[in-house]
Hints:
The protein is of the alpha/beta class and 303 residues long. It has one domain. It has helices at residues 3-9, 44-53, 102-118, 122-131, 139-149, 152-156, 200-215, 227-238, 259-265, 280-297, and strands spanning 70-74, 77-80, 93-97, 172-176, 181-184, 187-188, 221-224. Strand 5 and strand 6 form a beta hairpin. 42% of the residues are buried. Mean pLDDT is 86; it is low at 11-39.
Amino acid sequence: MDPILARLAQRFVWHGTLGLFNASLRLPVTTPATSFPPQLPARFSDYAELIAATDLEQVVKAADIPDGFLLARAGRVEARYTPFDYVNLDARVVVVGISPGFVQWKNAVRAAQQGLRAGLALPELLRAAKYTGAFSGAIRPNLVALLDDIGLQHWLGIASCASLFGADAHLMHVTGALRQAVFVDGSNYNGASPNMVSTPLLQSQLLDYFGREAGLLPGAVFVPLGPKVSQALSWLAKRGVLDEGRILHGLPHPSGANAERIAYFLGRKEKAALSSRTNGAQIDADRLALRAKMAVLGMTPVS
């Protein structure tokens, strides 16, 4: 273990939501969990020493993640601690994906190690770990185009949602419906199997992590990325965790692999030109429902 990382890791202890500092450290639990729910909340202070000690060169797949990161396991499904504790309490828009995968887990742990080595304050360290590599590639411009198309920039009082990745980053929070990395048979969880809202371990993860985050952001709107996340957020709304009226269902997932659906939603492709893989009627219905909700919230679509 890097002795510098070890000393720096011992600076941190987490108190409440905002995070304060103390000279002591609560050591991580190293005995693997075999059931759920985990002892909550799982906090960076509990894992700082383990993060510092982890040799990421030896972690090349999910199965290589040290057992000390294991939060819960049930059959084929397991959740591993990921240093995504940071919550932007000033956010007015929350973009919600499914769950961090292995690459995101590894990048976040690496960023946390770098933050420890640099002696960053805890909030700064956690923010860096959370947002390392967020929305790279085609996802970012697609997401900006979709958010601008529904008029979110006007509601936020900015020229374009592109600035959410720059000068106006304080207005956006990025998270996952499942905040911790979830793996099924050692592979990244895809949101489909098992069902997020009918699997007890995943229900627990939804409530214990994302549910707590959402409770800190009552004035924000929530943008689910894809139908599985929409389903999860509606499940939480039915339990009083979220306001259904503040969930912006219906946007196509901004992945580059979803280019045709995005183009049709944005009016860049005619319905007659759509392939059989794209349900134009469903996109039309989703767009109408979304715009009705936007009107209630005071948002004005571009077209």
